[in-house]
Amino acid sequence: MTDAAELRRRTRELLEAHPPAGTDRLDFLRARFDAGLAWVHYPEGLGGLGVPRSLQAVVDAELEAADAPDNDPRRIGIGLGMAAPTILRYGTDEQKRRFLRPLWTGEEVWCQLFSEPGAGSDLAALGTRAVRDGEDWVVDGQKVWTSSAHIARWAILIARTDPTVPKHAGITYFVCDMTDPGVEVRPLRQITGEAEFNEVFLTGVRIPDSRRLGETGDGWRVAQTTLNNERVAIGGMRLPREGGMIGPVATTWRERPELRTHDLHQRLLKLWVDAEVARLTSERLRQQLASGQPGPEGAGMKLAFARLNQEISGLEIELLGEEGLLYDDWTMRRPELVDFTGREAGYRYLRSKGNSIEGGTSEVLLNIVAERVLGLPAEPRTDKDVAWKDLAR
User: Fold this and answer.
1) N or C: which end of the chain has fewer CB atoms below 10 A?
2) pTM score
3) Residues whose CB falls within 8 Å of the CB of residue 197, separated by 6 or more in sequence, listed in order
4) Alpha carbons 355 and 239: distance in angstroms, whole number
5) What are 154-178's pLDDT values in tens digits?
6) Any idea which residues carry the catalytic annotation?
7) Residues contacting residue 347 through CB under 8 Å, at least 6 positions apart
8) What is the DSSP string of 267-295?
């Protein structure tokens, strides 16, 4: 049985065979994956050892102490937090072997082709079509708000394969090669000045049936695995005390006493406590997840994440006064990751506005918490049993 002591031994063997100081970064990450030390709760041969998720901390501590390279998780967060658990649960053995290793090492970046101009909050109303043609599916449609599409090799994609059944029933889940003919990525410039998001146009894109995840028409159920993991990935990040948005504000408060007022002090205290409660609740949620797949509870964490970020960044702007109105760079650029704490207060304030939209709008998540966590009556849905082709659009 693999326990903490055995994991330490295996990790030290990895470090001896591949000293971080003298080993190419990618070679080290590949060796770590092959040793089952990438995500220890995954099965053997797929980067893990089939042991409890909680033991990952043992491996991470040993590698951090040895200054070993990581896989830049913020840059490949969509692959790690959304694509990988979906592939693990619904993928074929061949798909798991093909995709999981380069996904974890960061050799292949992933994006998520879910939202559409007419299907954001009501994702099941999506209109992107996939029509079977021999051993392929031909996909036509448009996706929007796609993070990392400009650097991604692969995408998780849901498309409508049967318009004659109710909207939730006629969806199928695919893996799309972003380098295939017919895939066009266009930048979407945001309020921050950056084009972190994209819109993606799919015109006659051919996807082999071998890159379908789950059964035909069962894509909505498969997508729930992705969405539940997405909300945990966004709202349940592991942070130290005063990590995240509350850190810069607390630092400014300590270092700039001339900015303090009684009102700001009271508001900062409340938000500091709220941030700490959210951090500890997030830790408890991750411990609960160690024994299974994420559930609807992740919606509550993502709600708290969005609210806190927006309130904290607003307080920071008020605390800084005129300084808070400064903005360092409005240059149009296409970043590879979101850096909340590496930029100035103005960026944090503007970027946090998107937190209540991305990963599920706060309004939709409130419904999820009400219905699936608290057990309250479901909101009336008149289109539940209507064929998608007959819906008013």
Assistant:
1) N
2) 0.90
3) 144, 145, 146, 147, 187, 188, 190
4) 17
5) 999 999 999 999 999 999 999 999 9
6) 230
7) 192, 327, 328
8) HHHHHHHHHHHHHHHHHHHHHHHTTS---
